[in-house]
Design brief:
- The protein has ten helices and no strands.
- Helix content is about 80%, strand content about 0%.
- The N and C termini lie far apart (about 35 Å).
- The relative contact order is 0.23.
- It is mostly helical.
- Helix 1 runs parallel beside helix 9, helix 2 packs parallel to helix 10 and helix 6 packs antiparallel against helix 7.
- It has one domain.
Length: about 240
């Protein structure tokens, strides 16, 4: 095993542990770590999404089994998210890496502040506005592909803030994330080629090993300090690259 492969395994393991405790941040943390290592923006997002195929399918199936899924919400959210994901992945794969890098860093900084905001001031339910579900899915898909993560913080926060049942939102967005991730991954494979994505195997190995531990840690670790720590890591590392 090379040191790079072991690093990717470690990144996948840590990101999945945190994602299991928070219900978000696997994509953002993995992408942030890969960008810090010098991986191009398109490749970092591609590696992350290929790895997420294996983590999201387990999460989505579990929510279906627990009846946490609102299928009407999934039907409205999934198509828009898939279209947005394909568009975002195509743009990122065909853009100049040096040109797109500041925008990706700025987006990750914004997601870090979203997580920080949720840690101190959770969004309270408001009146449900179903017309907003497809636009939220479209924007979430585009930003998730471009930034390598963010579906959870953006889509889940928006839907809960609009008054949807948090339990159903979490289950539905987790299930939908697999479909969005599949489209994003296929778009990256078609535009970049599989040879550019071999390091995703390390993320997959680390994520799969950590997946069973996430459910245990969520009952024991204080969530708010963990969210603050994650947001600080994301904001600080992204800000350094941006500057």
């Amino acid at each position: 095993m090379t040191l790079d492969f072991l690093f990717f395994v470690l990144v996948g393991f840590c990101a999945q542990i945190i994602d299991g405790a928070l219900g978000m941040a696997f994509g953002v943390l993995s992408t942030t770590s890969l960008l810090a290592l010098g991986v191009p923006a398109a490749n970092a997002s591609a590696m992350t999404h290929v790895a997420e195929l294996f983590t999201t399918v387990a999460s989505g199936a579990s929510h279906v089994y627990q009846r946490n899924v609102d299928w009407k919400l999934v039907v409205r959210l999934a198509p828009a998210g898939m279209v947005g994901g394909a568009v975002g992945a195509y743009i990122l794969a065909n853009a100049d890496g040096e040109v797109i890098k500041p925008f990706v860093s700025a987006y990750l900084i914004a997601v870090g502040f979203v997580i920080l905001f949720k840690a101190f001031r959770p969004l309270w339910p408001r009146d449900v506005r179903d017309w907003a579900v497809p636009p939220i899915g479209l924007c979430g898909g585009v930003l998730d592909a471009v930034g390598g993560g963010g579906w959870g913080p953006i889509v889940t926060s928006s839907l809960v803030g609009r008054g949807h049942d948090p339990k159903k939102v979490i289950g539905s967005t987790n299930l939908t994330e697999f479909a969005v991730t599949l489209v994003i991954s296929l778009t990256f494979v078609l535009t970049l080629g599989w040879s550019e994505l071999h390091a995703a195997i390390g993320l997959i190995v680390g994520g799969v090993i950590a997946a069973p531990l996430g459910a245990v840690l969520v009952k024991r670790l204080p969530v708010r300090p963990l969210m603050v720590a994650v947001s600080i890591i994301i904001i600080s590392t992204s800000a350094i690259r941006f500057l």
